[in-house]
Amino acid sequence: MIKFISSEDTLAIRSPVLRDGAASHLCIFDGDDDELSFHLGYFIDDELVCVASFHKQEREGFSGLGYQLRGMATLFAQQGKGIGNQLVNFSIVYLRGQKANYIWCNARKVAFTFYSGLGFEFISEEFDIPKIGPHRSMYLKIQ
């Protein structure tokens, strides 16, 4: 089941999956609690297993209302089961209703195939985020 969750709820998944178990306070993103930001969680039997955050953030060179997808993470035991796919597809439907035009993200190299499978396109060359690794920016037009 997919639900809207708080930014604080995301930390239990962000920490082990995205930051190698770093302290929760190191997994907070700028914009997490902005008025137009929202967070989604996928639950299996009341256990949170996947999270994603969406911040209203236009991308230079693109027109319309944009949201940045950040902190997409699925517990390791649940990866490869289509849960992240369902969460992103839910967000697309929701953001269309909010009149957003596109979603973009800075995808980790290990997630390029995941995002490409959802229709995201590369919009940058590879770059490194210190202590995290190689990324590329990706974009998905949603309306």
Task: Explain what this protein looks like in three dimensions.
The protein has helices at residues 7-18, 83-97, 112-117, and strands at residues 2-5, 38-44, 47-56, 66-74, 102-108, 121-122, 127-129, 133-141. By secondary structure, it is of the alpha+beta class. Strand 2 and strand 3 form a beta hairpin. The protein is globular and about 35 Å long.
Instruction: Tell me, briefly, the overall form.
Output: globular
Q: Indicate the structural class.
A: alpha+beta
Unreliable stretches, pLDDT < 50, 5 or more residues? none
Radius of gyration: 14 Å
Strand content: 35-45%
Whole-number mean pLDDT = 93
Question: Count the helices. How many?
Answer: 3
* Major sheet attributes: 8 strands, mixed
Helicity, as a percent range: 10-25%
CA-CA gap between termini: 25 Å
Say how many strands there are. 8
| Topology pattern, helix = H, strand = E | EHEEEHEHEEE
What are the SSEs and their pairings?
Layout: E1 2-5, H1 7-18, E2 38-44, E3 47-56, E4 66-74, H2 83-97, E5 102-108, H3 112-117, E6 121-122, E7 127-129, E8 133-141
What are the main properties of this structure?
single chain; 143 residues; alpha+beta; 23% helix
